[in-house]
Design brief:
Number of domains of chain A: 2
Helix content of chain B: 55-70%
Structural class of chain A: alpha/beta
CATH class of the largest domain in chain A: Alpha Beta
Number of strands of chain A: 12
CATH superfamily of the largest domain in chain B: MetI-like
CATH architecture of the largest domain in chain B: Orthogonal Bundle
Number of strands of chain B: 4
CATH superfamily of the largest domain in chain A: Periplasmic binding protein-like II
Strand content of chain A: 15-25%
CATH topology of the largest domain in chain B: MetI-like fold
Oligomer: heterodimer
Largest sheet of chain B: 2 strands, antiparallel
CATH architecture of the largest domain in chain A: 3-Layer(aba) Sandwich
Strand order of the largest sheet of chain B: 1-4
Distance between the termini of chain B: 23 Å
Helix content of chain A: 40-55%
Order of helices and strands of chain B: HEEEEHHHHHHHHHHHHH
Number of helices of chain B: 14
Number of domains of chain B: 2
Radius of gyration of chain A: 22 Å
Number of helices of chain A: 17
Shape of chain B: globular
Order of helices and strands of chain A: HEHEHEHHEEEHHEHHHEHEEHHEHEHHH
Strand content of chain B: 5-15%
Radius of gyration of chain B: 27 Å
Distance between the termini of chain A: 66 Å
CATH class of the largest domain in chain B: Mainly Alpha
C-alpha cells in the first residue's frame, strides 16, 4: 500500500515537473510568490507552476512576513496573495505597483469586477470571494420539521428544538476562538445590526445599542455550542460538522467543499449552504476577497513576467479543474450548490469587510475584549467601553487619533 | 592571574553580553519613552472591491499615510515620557478599582490580569518543582544500581521535549473529546469540558510546568546527593536519626546552595511563562506578562504594532524578575560574605 502510494506520488510529481503544456508562454525568469495556504491558493499556485521557474510559498502566517518582505529592495517575492485587509500594509508602504498597463496588455479575459481599484488605479486582481454563511444539516432540520433559519431568532429556536431532540452533541458550532476569529464573529453580527466601527475622526463608535445587541446574540448562541467555544477555530468547527457533532454553524464559504469530501466527512450531501442569518438591518456577515498583487521593488521586465504567470494561475483552465474549491470570480466558473450560501449572502445585501488601518486596530481590540462578556467577567456596556478604550490607546499610539 | 590573561579569557564573553544583552536592553529602554508613528493625511479615496455579481465602489474619507519622494511612509518620533507605561499599567482604572476593593474589576485590566497569573504561576510551581525534583532524586539514589540508568533516562524525558510541543500535546489530550477527556468522561459518567473553565486550564498549566521542569531540579539534586558526606550520614544513623531526620538535618542543608540555584533559575524562567499560554490557547481566560508583550508586538492586518507599549511591558517584566530575585540574591550575598570573614 505504502509502496503504491510512493510510486503514485513520484508519478504525480514527475507530471507536475514537465507539464508546461498548459501555459501560454515559457517563463524564463525566477518568479517567487507568497500567499496564504488554503485550497484556493494551492490550486492557483499549482497552475502558475505550469509555466516553469515558479517558486510558490504557501503560508497561513503570510501576513506577518509580507510587509517586510515586499519592502526589501529587491523585493523577496514578486507575486503576493492578499485579502481585503492584508493589502493595506502594502498599499500604505507603497510596495506594490499599479497593474493597469499589464491588464491592458495581458488581462483582456479579466472581468471588471476583478479589478481592485484604489484612487482609480488597479492595485490588485481579485480571484474569489469568501464570506461566513449558514451551513445546516438538512436531514436533521427536515426530520424535526424545522424550516430553514432566516434570522438569528430562527437559529436560536431551531437550536432549542435540536437540543431537545438530542440528535447531535451540540446544535451549534461557532468560530469563537479568542483573537481574530472571535472579533470576526462580532464584526459580522455588528454589521448585520447596521453598526459602524469608527467615525470620520477615527474615534470608536461601537458602544451603542447595536453593539450590545450583537454581544447578547453571540452569548445566546454560545449556550448551544460546545462549552469550549473560546478555543474553536474554523478548522475545529469544520471537523465538528464532518464528524456529525453539530447541526448548524456560520462558517466560511471556503470550508463548504470539505463537507462533501468523502475521505474526511461522515455527512456527505447532508449539509445545505444558506445565506448568513439576517441581523436587524442586513445579513450578519462580511464579504472578503482574495487576490494577487505584484511587488514594486523588482525590474519592470520581471514584473511583466510575474503578471503573465499570475494570469496563468487564475485562468479558465484552473477554474474548470477546481470549480468547487472556492467561489471564484473568474470567467468559466459555474456556481454550484456549494456556492449558494455565499451568493445568497451577497444577494441579501451583506457589505464588504470595512478594511482600514483603524479597523485592523479595532479588530485586535475586539479579539482581546469580547471574551470578557462571554465568560461573564463584564457586562455588555463595560465590555464595549473597555474595547473602545483599548482601541483609543492603540490608535493614538499608531498616530490615527491626534 | 595577570590582568592581560584575565581580559583575554573574559573579553569575548563581555563583548557578547554587551552586544546581545546590554545594547538591546538600552534600545528597548529608550523606545519605551518614544513613540514612532506615520504621518496621516485625511484624503478622499475611491475604492472598488468585488461584490459577488457586480463591483462595489465606495468613495470615503480615509486616513492615508503620507509618502516621501521615494514612496516610503513619512514617520515622526516623539518623546512621550511615561505615557507608554501609563497605557500598559492603566493606573487610573487600577486605582479606581483598588480603592473600592473591587479585585475582580482590577483583574479585567490586561496588565494586572497578566501580573496576577504570572506571579501566582511562579510562586505555586516553585515549591512543587523543588519537592518533586528532590523526591525523584532521593528515590533514584536509593534504587539498586542496575535500575538507576534507565530510571534517570525516563525521569529526564519530559525535560527533553520542546516546551511548545509538550504544551500542545497536553492540550490535544484534553481538548474536545481528546483521549484523556474521553477517559474521564467514561470513568465519571458525565460530560467534561476542560477548556471551558479558567481554573481547569490554569491547573493544567501548573501541572505541565512542574512535569516539564522537575527533571532539571532532579538532575541537579541527584548530582548533589553523590557528594553528601557518608561519615556524617553514618554517624547520624548511629545516633538513631530516622530517615526523615537524616534528610532534614543532613541532606537538605548540604544541598542548600543547589536549592537556591534551582530556585533562581526557576524564578527567572517561570516569570517569563509564555509557551503554556500559546500551547493551551488560553488567552480568553489566562494571560501572562510575556504573552502581553508578544501580543503588543504582533502586527495586525494593517501591519501596525504597538512597539512603545511592548517596550514598556518588556521593561516592566524585567523589573518584576529583579524584584522576585532580590531575596534569594541577598541570601547568597550574605552567605558569601560570612564565608569570606
Amino acid at each position: 500500500m505504502l509502496m503504491k502510494r510512493l510510486v503514485l506520488a513520484g508519478a504525480i510529481s514527475l507530471l507536475a515537473g514537465t507539464a508546461y503544456a498548459d501555459c501560454a508562454f515559457e517563463n524564463k525568469m525566477e518568479i517567487k510568490s507568497l500567499t496564504a495556504g488554503f485550497a484556493a491558493w494551492k490550486a492557483v499556485t499549482d497552475a502558475m507552476a505550469e509555466c516553469g521557474n515558479v517558486q510558490a510559498e504557501l503560508d497561513q502566517e503570510f501576513r506577518k512576513k509580507q510587509p517586510d518582505a515586499f519592502a526589501a529592495n529587491p523585493s523577496l517575492y514578486d507575486i503576493g496573495g492578499v485579502a481585503n485587509s492584508t493589502i493595506l500594509p502594502l498599499l500604505a508602504a507603497g510596495t506594490i505597483r499599479p497593474l493597469d498597463d499589464y491588464v491592458a496588455k495581458y488581462g483582456q479575459q479579466l472581468k471588471p469586477n476583478q479589478l481592485i481599484k484604489v484612487d482609480g488605479k488597479t492595485m490588485a486582481i481579485a480571484m474569489d470571494v469568501n464570506a461566513q454563511h449558514l451551513m445546516y444539516r438538512s436531514d436533521i432540520l427536515g426530520d424535526l420539521g424545522i424550516a430553514a433559519p432566516k434570522t438569528y431568532d430562527d437559529v436560536l429556536a431551531a437550536a432549542a428544538k435540536i437540543k431537545a431532540a438530542g440528535v447531535v452533541d451540540y446544535p451549534l458550532g461557532g468560530t469563537y476562538k479568542t483573537g481574530w476569529n472571535l472579533a470576526e464573529e462580532f464584526v459580522n453580527m455588528y454589521l448585520g445590526n447596521g453598526g459602524t466601527f469608527t467615525d470620520a475622526n477615527n474615534m470608536p463608535t461601537i458602544n451603542n445599542d447595536a453593539g450590545v445587541k450583537s454581544l447578547e446574540t453571540m452569548k445566546a448562541l454560545t449556550a448551544y455550542m460546545d462549552p469550549e467555544y473560546l478555543v474553536s477555530d474554523s478548522t475545529y468547527v469544520q471537523q465538528q460538522f464532518q464528524q456529525g457533532k453539530i447541526a448548524m454553524a456560520n462558517l466560511w464559504a471556503t470550508r463548504a467543499a470539505a463537507m462533501n469530501d468523502a475521505a474526511e466527512s461522515q455527512v456527505v450531501g447532508k449539509v445545505t449552504m444558506a445565506a448568513a442569518p439576517m441581523g436587524s438591518v442586513r445579513p450578519a456577515s462580511s464579504l472578503w476577497w482574495d487576490g494577487i498583487v505584484i511587488a514594486k521593488n523588482i525590474s519592470d521586465a520581471k514584473a511583466e513576467d510575474a503578471f503573465r504567470v499570475a494570469m496563468e494561475g487564475i485562468d479558465k483552465d484552473m477554474v474548470q479543474a477546481n470549480n468547487d474549491v472556492a467561489v471564484w470570480l473568474i470567467d468559466g466558473y459555474v456556481p454550484g450548490p456549494l456556492a449558494a450560501g455565499a451568493a445568497a449572502t451577497a444577494a441579501a445585501g451583506a457589505v464588504p469587510y470595512p478594511a482600514s488601518a483603524q479597523m485592523s486596530i479595532m479588530h485586535t481590540a475586539l479579539g482581546n475584549g469580547v471574551a470578557d462578556y462571554l465568560t461573564g467577567a463584564k457586562d455588555a456596556k463595560t465590555t464595549l467601553a473597555d474595547i473602545e478604550a483599548a482601541y483609543t490607546t492603540a490608535a493614538k499610539e499608531a498616530g490615527l487619533i491626534k | 592571574m595577570k590582568f592581560r590573561t584575565f581580559a583575554i579569557f573574559v573579553g569575548p564573553s563581555v563583548f557578547m553580553m554587551l552586544l546581545f544583552i546590554a545594547f538591546p536592553l538600552i534600545s528597548v529602554f529608550k523606545q519605551s519613552f518614544y513613540v514612532t508613528q506615520p504621518v496621516y493625511d485625511q484624503v478622499t479615496v475611491e475604492t472598488c472591491t468585488p461584490g459577488f455579481l457586480k463591483q462595489i465602489c465606495t468613495s470615503e474619507v480615509k486616513s492615508q499615510p503620507r509618502l516621501d519622494a521615494n514612496g516610503a511612509p513619512v514617520t515622526q518620533t516623539r518623546f512621550v515620557g511615561l505615557q507608554s507605561y501609563r497605557n500598559v499599567l492603566e493606573p487610573d482604572r487600577a486605582w479606581a478599582a483598588l480603592s473600592r476593593w473591587d479585585l475582580s474589576t482590577l483583574l479585567t485590566i490586561d496588565f494586572w490580569k497578566a501580573l496576577r497569573f504570572t506571579v501566582m504561576f511562579t510562586l505555586v510551581t516553585l515549591p512543587l518543582v523543588l519537592v518533586t525534583g528532590l523526591a525523584i532524586a532521593v528515590a533514584v539514589n536509593n534504587a539498586t544500581k542496575s535500575l538507576r540508568g534507565p530510571l534517570i533516562f525516563v525521569s529526564l524525558l519530559p525535560f527533553i521535549i520542546t516546551p511548545v510541543i509538550g504544551a500542545l500535546s497536553i492540550r490535544w489530550l484534553f481538548i474536545g473529546d481528546g483521549i484523556m477527556t474521553a477517559f474521564l468522561e467514561w470513568a465519571l459518567g458525565h460530560n467534561i469540558s476542560v477548556f471551558a473553565n479558567a481554573w481547569a486550564i490554569e491547573a493544567l498549566m501548573y501541572f505541565y510546568r512542574v512535569w516539564h521542569v522537575a527533571p532539571f531540579a532532579f538532575v541537579i539534586f541527584y548530582a548533589g546527593l553523590q557528594t553528601v558526606n557518608q561519615d556524617t550520614l553514618e554517624s547520624a544513623i548511629i545516633d538513631g536519626a530516622s530517615r526523615w531526620q537524616r534528610l532534614r538535618y543532613v541532606v537538605i542543608p548540604h544541598l542548600m546552595p543547589l536549592i537556591v540555584f534551582v530556585s533562581l533559575i526557576h524564578l527567572m524562567d517561570s516569570y517569563r511563562v509564555f509557551d503554556e499560554i500559546v500551547g493551551f490557547a488560553s488567552q480568553a481566560y489566562v494571560i501572562s506578562l510575556q504573552w502581553l508583550t508578544y501580543d503588543l508586538l504582533t502586527p495586525d492586518d494593517s501591519g501596525t504594532r504597538a512597539i512603545s507599549r511592548a517596550s514598556a511591558s518588556a521593561m516592566l517584566t524585567m523589573i518584576g524578575i529583579v524584584i522576585l530575585l532580590i531575596p534569594l540574591l541577598r541570601k547568597t550575598w550574605r552567605d558569601h560574605k560570612s564565608q569570606v570573614h
